[in-house]
Specification:
With 287 residues, the protein is mostly beta strands. It contains two helices and 17 strands. It has helices at residues 27-37, 42-60, and strands at 9-11, 24-26, 81-86, 92-97, 105-108, 127-128, 134-138, 146-150, 158-161, 175-178, 181-187, 193-198, 206-207, 221-225, 231-236, 242-247, 255-258. The longest helix has 19 residues, at 42-60.
Length: 287
């Protein structure tokens, strides 16, 4: 009994998460409280309301809501990568993967046994033609590093052309030009390192232009495609030194752009960066 009012009183335990501080209610008040709130799961309610309250506060303060993590989509059946890898028994060889365990495998042991076929690993060594095939440099152990092509299968992996017959290397880089073609600075053992073009066939792999006539090399490197079938590159014609050139893959369409530093020393251009389309760059032969 309450000595002041003479009415019965009950001590009501506050729900979890609320301080009771000895709060007392009349029997009628306690009954009403239990009727309304007795079945509420306060922990569950707090768990659902607190995130909404935090979100409301963030919006009030002008903060952007935290982004909801989105898992990456699984790779589609047609998406594959070719790359070089060493499994400890076959040497460094050509592999393919679609991002799954079952879809990752050795394509072909190009240099049979533990020897390395050594598909190049520096940027530009693999060049996709855009039709499900990719060019790359490799050695089968009988010759030097030459131009190969693959569709990701053993049957579809073959030598394109032995540009430099014998043990010498022929292909040094591969840069897709578009339209199923790629530029290849190559050495045929006669004319030095010059720009070549390929469509992935032996007949379609030819010298573009002997930029520096004779046995000396123009050292054509740094090919940076525009995306319209043309590419800038650095080369030395033996007269003006290393300067900026352009090519469309034909002899007639390969010419000096600008003699930036007149005379035989050259301006040594490098690291061409395309300002549009994500900033593609060409390989920098000078650093």
């Amino acid at each position: 009994m309450n000595a002041d009012t003479g009415s019965a009183a009950f001590a009501v335990r506050a729900p979890a998460g609320f301080a009771a501080s000895g709060s007392h209610f009349s029997s009628a008040s306690a009954a009403a409280f239990h009727a309304v709130f007795g079945a509420v799961d306060w922990d569950d309610l707090a768990g659902r309301l607190l995130p909404d309250l935090a979100e409301a506060i963030r919006r009030f303060l002008g903060e952007k809501p935290a982004p909801t993590p989105v898992p990456p989509p699984p790779p589609s059946a047609g998406e594959r990568f070719v790359f070089s890898a060493e499994n400890g028994s076959d040497g460094r060889e050509l592999w393919v993967s679609n991002g799954t365990h079952a879809g990752t495998r050795l394509v072909r042991d190009i240099n049979p046994g533990p020897g390395d076929a050594f598909p190049f690993s520096f940027p530009g060594s693999f060049g996709a033609l855009g039709d499900g095939r990719a060019l790359f440099g490799a050695s089968d152990g009988t010759g030097g590093v030459e131009l190969w092509i693959t569709d990701g299968t053993a049957a579809g992996t073959r030598l394109v052309k032995d540009i430099n017959p014998g043990r010498g290397d022929g292909a040094f880089d591969i840069v897709p030009l578009g339209g199923g073609r790629a530029l290849v600075p190559a050495f045929d053992g006669v004319l030095g390192i010059e720009p070549w073009i390929t469509d992935g066939t032996e007949a379609g792999t030819v010298l573009v232009r002997d930029v520096r006539p004779g046995a000396a090399s123009s050292d054509a490197f740094g090919f940076a495609p525009f995306g319209d079938g043309r590419a800038l590159f650095a080369a030395n014609n033996g007269v003006r030194g290393e300067e900026v050139w352009i090519t469309d893959g034909t002899e007639a369409g390969t010419r000096l752009v600008e003699d930036i530093r007149p005379g035989p020393e050259g301006s040594a251009p490098g690291q061409f960066v395309l300002l549009e389309d994500g900033g593609r760059t060409g390989f920098d032969p000078f650093g």
